[in-house]
User: Fold Phenylalanine--tRNA ligase alpha subunit from Candidatus Ryanbacteria bacterium RIFCSPHIGHO2_01_FULL_45_22.
Amino acid sequence: MSNFDELKREALLAIQGAESVVRLRDVEVKYLGRSGRLTEVLRGLKDVPENERKEKGKEANALREVLEREIAKCQSQLQDADHERKLAAEKIDITRPGKKHHKGSLHPLTVIRRDIEQIFGTMGFTVAEGPEVETEFYNFDALNIPADHPARDMWDTFWIKGKKLKTEGKKLLLRTHTSPVQVRYMQTHTPPFRIIAPGRVFRYEATDASHEIQFYQLEGLMVGRDISLAHFKQVMQTFLGTLFGKDMNVRLRPSYFPFVEPGAEVDMSCVQCGGRGCSVCKQTGWVEIAGAGMVHPHVFASAGLNPKDWQGFAFGFGIDRVAMMKYKIPDIRMFYQNDVRFLKQF
Ligand code: PHE
Assistant:
């Protein structure tokens, strides 16, 4: 009798003292396992005298049931506790401030090109494009710059070796300006129209703070029955005024480009000093910004338009240069070095 009580007391104590599921399993093995304490007792029953055997057997089985029930109860408690602990450890504090992710930003030249397209868009200009690998015909001949004419030297050219276009028998090159888009557009469209053509151009020349072998230009072309340089001046003034957010004056100085007649250099008020004179504008109050002029009759002709029917203006400027003035960037090469510290400011 006292044997069972002792065993029961000991086993229950061990069960309650188990502080993990693994320890509890040890206890179970110790008492109820194949050679566990209670199992031994049950096995020993065969040696117990007949008259006591039944009674002892009952008691032993009752004890086993108690222990089994107790172990099951303890196990589910320990499992619950485990679960609670895990939940607490994995808890997410949704009130904590988030981690910052580094976002990319648009390249300054993209930002300004979009701004420029938007401004010209409000004046009815649509965007046209042409290839960066051009033919000699579109880059020069069609623009009234014949072979061997000294005017070709105005553009230092990257020629593409060995390649000739069968259809035109002309060499290929990297376009030195966006003006070829004028011809391509006029070949495929009937005036009146107004377009801008932004794009990459290439010059075979030494680089410095204001020269790159690759940069961006924006071509403009407006053709109709009676389009004049007066229209051009107004378009330019509106464009610059909107882009720089202040009144801008524009002046034209006579100049020469083979594909326009008359041709002009376009100056705008110095953004730095507003025209009073400073080191940026060399005390003149003016900064050169674009080339422009009235489309040359030969250009109309090479695009298949009758110069007697149509007239218009064309202009071209460097997008990089405009961006440098707007954002006060001292060196054009910064646009192409991809230094994140520079780029992320835009
Ligand atoms: N294409 C000229 C250049 O690259 C600029 C220009 C365009 C001049 C249109 C006149 C008219 O220098």
The pocket of phenylalanine is lined by residues 177, 179, 257, 260, 291-293, 314-316 (CB under 6 Å). The mean pLDDT is 93. The chain has two domains: 4-89, 108-343.
